[in-house]
Amino acid sequence: MTGRGARRLGGRWRRRGALRTRLAVAATAAVACVVVCVCTAAFFIVRYELYRQLDLNLTQSARLVAQQNRRAGPGVLAGECRFLAAPACAQLVPAAAVRDPREPYLLPVSGAVRRVAAGEHPGFRSDFTLSGHPARMLTTPYGDGLALQVALRADTVAEGVGQAAWLLVLVGAGGVLLAAVLGSWVARTGLAPVARLTATAERITATRDPGHRIELPPPGREDELTRLAGSFNSMLDELEQSVTAQRRLVADASHELRTPLTALRTNAELLARADRLTEAQRTRAAGALGRQLREVTGLVNDLIELARDEEPQPLVEDVRVAALVQHAVAAARTHWPAVPFALEVADGAAGAVVPGVPARLSRLLSNLLDNAAKFSPAGLPVEVGLRCPGGVAEVTVRDHGPGIAAEDLPYVFDRFYRAGSARALPGSGLGLAMARQIAQAHGAVLVAEPAAGGGALFRVRFAERA
Ligand SMILES: Nc1ncnc2c1ncn2[C@@H]1O[C@H](COP(=O)(O)OP(=O)(O)O)[C@@H](O)[C@H]1O
Ligand SMILES: [Mg+2]
Fold first, then answer.
1. What is the pLDDT of residues 336-390, one digit of tens each?
2. Which protein residue's CA is at the shortest distance from atom 8 of ligand 1?
3. Distance from Cα 242 to the centre of ligand 2, integer Å
4. Domain coordinates of the chain in residue numbers?
5. Any idea what the Cα angle at residue 251 is, between residues 250 and 252, rounded to 5°?
6. pTM of the predicted model, to two decimals?
């Protein structure tokens, strides 16, 4: 593989991987966010529950101490809560420090405690450290200008909260990891159809063969991506059709050009040895050469027109059909002076208007008129009619010639098709193919039929205006 090829492939791979990575990251982030939120919430709930239990114990202990020590004075009521299993320690604190007992307090006494004793403040709970251990304390009014302080060791609660935190961090980390795995799995399976689509598109680009298709799941299991794949497939159908049509046109054209070009070369070679020819032979060869050149030129011009695609939208305008037909008939009259053309515009059809490209519609009509004139026996008229049945414009071209044999009728609009009887007359076999192509591009219908009383009848029916 060349350096550039490798780089291009590398770039393509990276681009394809980028979307998958983005999707995986998004999915992971979403799940991880939920996991972290749930873990955080769980932590706060566990902590709240553990402290609520401890606070209930404290309240109960406070009630018990108050019941057991009615009318006690300031000082320590129940000692040793330094040990884990010991009952709550308690003390009574007066509002004013002058009433403090001589022995020191067990529990810390702050200004807030004095205010509770003075009745200026409702009770409160607080955390503190007792001989290096976590503890929790309840301060409530006791009456008599005293505040009751009750404390319990909070080791188990603090430990429980710590353990819960650790566990939840572990669970959260596991959850985030799982989210990453699931995220990349979701991205991979979710993008699998896209990967198939991309692979097919890349294969078509590499092989230039629009015959590839994306496999679709069985009906009933469609989603947005399979619908996209479906429209991709129908786009490929169209592309394949147009590519096939173009290839056939080129093949047909090169085949059809071979004969006139060979004849041309023969005459050219003949003229190259002009010194060995008589004057009459030279004139005949030169005449034939000129005719063949004109023929080939016409053929090539027709081919170029035939290879054109849809009508370019900006050229579409409202075309008055009556004026168009009159113009085409006038042009045919100068082109075929010996052929009488009769034009009949029905009442109500004079104002008919169709959207179209005037130059192309003129070409359609002139192809029909040329054929009619070409096949008309001397002196018999070509009848051109414009009618408007049901508000739809319809142009007919009828001649009194040999008509089209039933076995030729299905093929006269094919490229290069010429009925056996027409081979002697000049022509390429492209006129009617072009006429039908122009009609189709304008949403019109062009048909051929045998005319009553002999001759051929061509009918162009324009589309109804939306
Ligand atoms: N008015 C007509 N009368 C009889 N045959 C016709 C008429 N118009 C077309 N055809 C038949 O259809 C064939 C195809 O027509 P066309 O595509 O215009 O090619 P070309 O005129 O170059 O032969 C003609 O060769 C002829 O056999
Ligand atoms: Mg023709």
1. 999 999 999 998 899 899 999 999 999 999 999 999 999 999 899 999 999 999 8
2. 371
3. 25
4. 67-154, 224-306, 314-461
5. 90
6. 0.57
